[in-house]
Amino acid sequence: MLLPQIDPIDQEIIRLLHDNGRMSYAKIGETLNLSRVAIQKRVEGLIADGIIENFTVRLNSARLGKYISAFFEVRVEPRFVEQAGNALAEEPEVISIYQMTGPSTLHMHALLKDEEALETFLFQKIYTLEGVVNVDTHMVIKRFKQGTGLEL
């Protein structure tokens, strides 16, 4: 598979969109001294090449009533990893979930309303899954950085 070329202009477009995903093509064009149409074609090319996967918005979870941000290391018997991962991925509290190297570990981030919701999530949604052996829970105290993807 041939990797797409990212020239300096595309890199700058990506940087501008990374900083402000709502920046208009016209404003990007003005910044880079290119036309809106030229920017649109380049962004469409970056999307077609799979470099830009989607445009999103970062929400303030506390302002939306989700005061607990927690990470979970869920150890699962190897034969149940896929099943448990898929089941947990369906839970609305789960922001991200990954299968990690190590002893059949799922690494998961969830946002929850309060301690009671955390307890319910642990004991009614995680520990009830077949094959779950152990869960380590880590609550976020302070965020120093939160990425939105790869930075060039």
TrEMBL record:
Gene3D superfamilies: 3.30.70.920, Winged helix-like DNA-binding domain superfamily/Winged helix DNA-binding domain. GO terms for cellular component: cytosol. GO terms for biological process: response to amino acid. Residues 6-67 form the HTH asnC-type domain. Keywords: DNA-binding, Transcription, Transcription regulation. It comes from the Bacteria. One of its GO terms (molecular function) is sequence-specific DNA binding. This is Transcriptional regulator. It comes from Paenibacillus mucilaginosus 3016.
